[in-house]
Design goal:
Shape: elongated
Structural class: mainly alpha
Largest sheet: none
Distance between the termini: 33 Å
Order of helices and strands: HHHH
Oligomer: single chain
Length: 165
């Protein structure tokens, strides 16, 4: 990756982090206060949706920070190192947790007549999408493992060849 690509990625990740923090710190409390101020107790779907927004923000933040760290490793040409796995694994786990939370939200919203069945189906479809993303990142992690092994073998062969010459 070129320096410009990494800078662009970091700019996008900065905006994403700022946006998720704004939603978590600013928007969710305002919505919660408005829900409590309404006559009657807060409904389960509203509370579940607010909890889901906070969890989704955490998932996005974990992924953004890990991608930032991986981009730093790419810039330093150290991405093909076993230390990179500690930045890929949290992405897999957090996206999988987000998928489970999405399915849970769909299950909470399914009974009752406040939410249309099509909306529940869309939320479930989004959960499947997140599960697919988690699997794709897992496959990419396996490719990184293979590339790391190949890099280590190439370094060993270079050392051996240097000793022969």
């Amino acid at each position: 990756m070129s320096r410009i690509s990494i800078m662009a990625l970091r700019g996008i990740l900065s905006v994403v982090l700022a946006g998720t923090l704004f939603v978590q710190v600013g928007m969710v409390p305002m919505i919660a206060v408005n829900e409590v101020a309404r006559p009657g107790a807060p409904e389960v779907p509203a509370v579940a949706l607010l909890a889901y927004l906070v969890l989704a923000g955490i998932v996005i933040e974990i992924c953004a920070v890990c991608v930032w760290k991986l981009a730093t490793r790419v810039a330093r040409s150290t991405v093909f190192d076993p230390a990179s796995f500690k930045y890929v694994s949290p992405i897999i786990v957090s996206v999988a947790a987000g998928s489970l939370a999405t399915f849970a939200l769909a299950a909470l919203l399914a009974p009752g007549e406040d939410i249309a069945p099509g909306m529940v189906l869309l939320i479930g479809g989004f959960g499947i999408l997140l599960a697919g993303i988690s699997v794709i990142v897992y496959v990419l992690r396996q490719l990184l493992i293979q590339a790391t092994r190949t890099e280590a073998q190439a370094a060993a062969l270079r050392t051996e060849l240097g000793g022969v010459i």
